[in-house]
C-alpha cells in the first residue's frame, strides 16, 4: 500500500511538472523606458502608439531639449522622440475620419529650463496618418497662429462623432487650484461648425468637479455626457440637452474626483447603448484642506441602459472588488471590460490635499486588474481570478490602451510638477512600460489574413481567415461575446478616461471550410463614427490580432460616409 501510494504521488508530481503551464494573464515589463511620462496615449497605426506629456524636464531629448511627445513602437518596444511646439499637458484628442490624430487643448504654462515650449491651452496638434511602421518621417504639425481652438481649454474631453469630426467639451482656461474655478463652460468642434463656442448649461451645473467630462457618441448620433454626479444626452444637431438621473449615492466621477466610464459593446440589430461608470468618490466637499490622501474611494459602478425603459429605470448599482480612484475601463475584443490602474484612496491632481504622499493626492495603488463581463448577472460580473499583480503603481497621469496585437500597453504616472525620481520617492515620475498580456497571446490564434483598406457602411464583405484546429468549437453565426467579430476604436487614454473607445459587434459567419469570414459592417456613421478601426475575430475567447482598417470613406470631416 505504502509503495503504491508513494508511486502514485510520484506520477502526479511528474505529470504536473511535465504539463505545460496553463496560459494565464501576465504582466511583461519592457526593457526600454518611455522617456517621457505617457500621460496620454493613443494607437495611431498598427505599430505605433503616440504619447504626450507635459513639457518639462523629461529624460528623452530632441533637438537639444526635453521632449514631451514620443512614438512607442509596439513591434520593437522602443521609443522615438517627437518635436512638439505647444505644451500638451492634460490635453485631449482622437483620430478623425481621415485617419489624422488631432490633439486639442493643454497647458498654458512654460517650463523654465525648456525654451522650446509654447502655451498649449488653445492648441490643435495634428499627427497625419503614418505609413512607416517605425514612424520614420512622421511628426506633429502645428500652426498656432492660424490653427487653434476658439476657447482656451486645459483638461477638456473630446470624442469623434457621427460625421467624423471631434466634439470638444469643457476644460478650464488657466491654472486653478485643485478644481475648476476658471471654467470653459462650452462646447466646440474640430473642424469648426460655427465661429463661436456653444454655451453648456450642463458644464455650468456640474462645477466645480467637472474636468475631463466623460463623453460618448451614441449610436443615434447624440452624445452622452457624465460629469461630477450628473449626466445628460446632448443633441449635437439640435444643440439641446436632455437631463438624465444623477449617479446614485453622491458618487462623483470627474477630475479631480476621477472615476472612469465606458460605452459597453454595441450589438446588432438594435445597438442599444449602455454606459458603465466605475470608481470616483462619495463626497460632499471639494475643499482640498478637508480632503485627505486617505479619503476612501468608492467601489461603486453604476450602469444605465440608454433607451426609454432604461432611462426610466435609472442607474443600476454594483461594486468592484475594491474601491478605486482613477481606474480606467478598457474594452477587450471579446466584449469584456478591463478595470485597471488607480488607487484605493485620495484624489487626482498634485500636492493639494491636507496630507499628500510626497506630491501624490492619492495612495494605496491597486495593482491587480479585474475583468467586467457585461452579460453576466448583476453581482457576478467582476472578477480578478487568475490576474497577476503589476508591481508598479499607476496613479495620477498614467495611461493604458488596447493594442492592435490584442494586449494592453500600460505606462505613466506622475503626481509631481516635473520629473521626480529617486529611492525615497514613493510615487515617482514613472517611465517603466508594461504590457498586460491576455492568455490568448500564448496559444495558437485565429488570423484575419487580409482585409480591404476601406470598408463602406452597411455592406457585406468576405475576407480570408485561418482558424487553428485547436479552436474546434466553431459557431457559424456570431452574435454575442466570446465568439465574435468586433470593430473597435482603441480610444485615447488620459486621466482615467478612454475617450472615443468603442466596440461594435458585427453579424458574421465562417465558411464550412473555415477559410473565409463574411460580415456586415455597421449601418452608418452614427453606430461607428467614420474613421480608423481595428477588427478582431474571437473564437472561444481566443482573439486574433487586430486588422487595421478605415471604416467609411476616409474623407476629411465632416463626412456622412
Ligand atoms: C545642440 O547643441 C550643440 C552644442 O551646444 C550644438 O552644437 C548643436 O548644433 C545643437 N543642435 C541643435 C539641433 O540645435
Ligand atoms: C451658471 O449658473 C449660474 C447659477 O445658476 C448663473 O448665475 C450663471 O449665469 C451661469 N453661467 C453661465 C455661463 O451660464
Ligand atoms: C449630486 O450632487 C448634488 C450637489 O452636490 C447633490 O445635491 C445631489 O444630492 C447629488 N445627487 C445624488 C443622487 O447623490
Ligand atoms: C505644482 O504646481 C502648482 C501650479 O502649477 C502649484 O500650485 C503647486 O504649488 C506646485 N506644487 C509643488 C509641490 O511644487
Ligand atoms: C469566455 O470567458 C467568459 C468570461 O470569463 C466565460 O464566461 C466563458 O465561459 C468563456 N468561454 C469559453 C469558451 O472559454
Ligand atoms: C484630415 O482632416 C483635418 C481636418 O479638416 C485636416 O486638418 C487634415 O489635414 C486632414 N488629413 C488628411 C490626411 O487629409
UniProtKB/TrEMBL annotation:
Residues 445-551 form the Galactose oxidase-like Early set domain. Keywords: Signal. Gene3D superfamilies: Galactose oxidase/kelch, beta-propeller, Immunoglobulins. The keyword tRNA-binding does not apply. PROSITE patterns: PROKAR_LIPOPROTEIN. Residues 1-18 form the signal peptide. InterPro entries: Gal_Oxase/kelch_b-propeller, Gal_Oxidase_central_sf, Glyoxal_oxidase_N, GO-like_E_set, Ig-like_fold, Ig_E-set. It comes from the Eukaryota. Residues 65-440 form the Glyoxal oxidase N-terminal domain. PANTHER family: GLYOXAL OXIDASE, SECRETED PROTEIN-RELATED. This is Glyoxal oxidase. It comes from Trametes cubensis.
Amino acid at each position: 500500500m505504502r509503495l503504491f501510494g508513494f508511486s502514485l504521488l510520484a506520477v502526479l508530481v511528474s505529470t504536473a511538472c511535465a504539463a505545460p503551464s496553463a496560459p494565464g494573464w501576465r504582466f511583461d515589463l519592457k526593457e526600454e523606458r518611455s522617456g517621457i511620462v505617457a500621460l496620454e496615449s493613443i494607437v495611431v497605426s498598427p505599430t505605433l502608439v503616440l504619447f504626450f506629456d507635459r513639457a518639462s524636464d523629461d529624460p528623452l531629448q530632441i533637438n537639444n531639449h526635453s521632449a514631451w511627445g514620443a512614438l512607442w513602437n509596439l513591434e520593437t518596444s522602443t521609443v522615438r522622440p517627437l518635436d512638439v511646439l505647444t505644451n500638451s499637458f492634460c490635453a485631449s484628442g482622437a483620430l478623425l475620419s481621415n485617419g489624422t490624430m488631432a490633439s486639442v487643448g493643454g497647458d498654458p504654462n512654460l517650463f523654465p529650463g525648456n525654451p522650446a515650449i509654447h502655451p498649449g491651452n488653445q492648441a490643435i496638434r495634428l499627427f497625419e496618418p503614418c505609413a512607416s511602421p517605425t514612424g520614420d518621417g512622421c511628426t506633429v504639425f502645428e500652426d498656432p497662429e492660424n490653427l487653434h481652438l476658439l476657447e482656451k481649454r486645459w483638461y477638456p474631453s473630446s470624442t469623434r462623432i457621427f460625421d467624423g469630426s471631434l466634439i470638444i467639451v469643457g476644460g478650464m482656461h488657466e491654472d486653478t487650484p485643485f478644481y475648476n474655478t476658471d471654467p470653459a463652460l462650452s462646447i466646440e468642434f474640430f473642424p469648426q461648425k460655427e465661429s463661436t463656442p456653444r454655451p453648456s448649461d450642463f458644464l455650468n451645473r456640474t462645477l466645480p468637479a467637472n474636468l475631463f467630462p466623460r463623453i460618448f457618441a451614441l449610436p443615434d448620433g447624440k452624445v452622452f455626457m457624465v460629469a461630477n454626479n450628473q449626466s445628460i444626452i446632448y443633441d449635437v444637431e439640435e444643440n439641446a440637452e436632455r437631463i438624465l438621473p444623477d449617479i446614485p449615492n453622491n458618487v462623483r466621477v470627474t477630475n479631480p474626483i476621477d472615476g472612469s466610464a465606458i460605452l459597453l459593446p454595441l450589438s446588432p440589430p438594435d445597438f442599444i447603448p449602455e454606459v458603465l461608470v466605475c470608481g470616483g468618490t462619495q463626497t460632499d466637499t471639494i475643499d482640498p484642506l478637508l480632503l485627505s490622501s486617505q479619503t476612501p474611494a468608492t467601489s461603486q459602478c453604476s450602469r444605465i441602459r440608454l433607451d426609454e425603459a432604461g432611462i426610466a429605470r435609472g442607474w443600476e448599482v454594483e461594486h468592484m472588488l475594491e474601491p478605486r480612484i482613477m481606474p480606467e475601463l478598457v474594452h477587450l475584443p471579446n466584449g469584456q471590460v478591463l478595470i485597471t490602474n488607480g488607487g484605493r484612496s485620495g484624489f487626482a491632481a498634485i500636492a493639494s490635499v491636507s496630507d499628500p504622499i510626497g506630491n501624490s493626492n492619492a495612495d494605496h495603488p491597486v495593482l491587480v486588474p479585474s475583468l467586467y463581463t457585461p452579460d453576466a448577472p448583476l453581482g457576478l460580473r467582476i472578477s480578478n481570478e487568475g490576474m497577476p499583480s503589476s508591481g508598479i503603481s499607476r496613479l495620477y497621469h498614467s495611461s493604458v490602451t488596447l493594442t492592435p496585437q490584442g494586449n494592453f500597453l500600460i505606462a505613466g504616472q506622475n503626481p509631481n510638477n516635473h520629473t521626480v525620481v529617486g529611492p525615497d520617492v514613493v510615487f515617482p515620475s514613472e517611465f517603466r512600460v508594461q504590457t498586460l498580456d491576455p492568455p490568448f497571446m500564448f496559444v495558437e490564434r485565429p488570423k484575419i489574413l487580409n482585409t480591404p483598406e476601406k470598408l463602406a457602411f452597411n455592406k457585406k464583405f468576405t475576407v480570408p481567415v485561418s482558424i487553428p484546429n485547436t479552436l474546434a468549437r466553431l459557431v457559424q453565426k456570431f452574435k454575442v461575446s466570446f465568439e465574435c467579430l468586433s470593430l473597435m476604436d482603441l480610444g485615447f487614454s488620459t486621466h482615467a478616461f478612454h475617450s472615443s473607445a468603442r466596440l461594435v459587434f458585427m453579424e458574421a459567419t465562417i465558411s464550412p471550410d473555415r477559410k473565409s469570414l463574411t460580415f456586415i459592417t455597421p449601418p452608418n456613421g452614427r453606430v461607428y463614427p467614420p474613421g480608423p478601426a481595428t477588427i478582431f475575430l474571437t473564437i472561444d475567447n481566443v482573439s486574433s490580432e487586430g486588422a487595421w482598417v478605415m471604416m467609411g470613406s476616409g474623407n476629411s470631416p465632416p463626412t456622412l460616409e
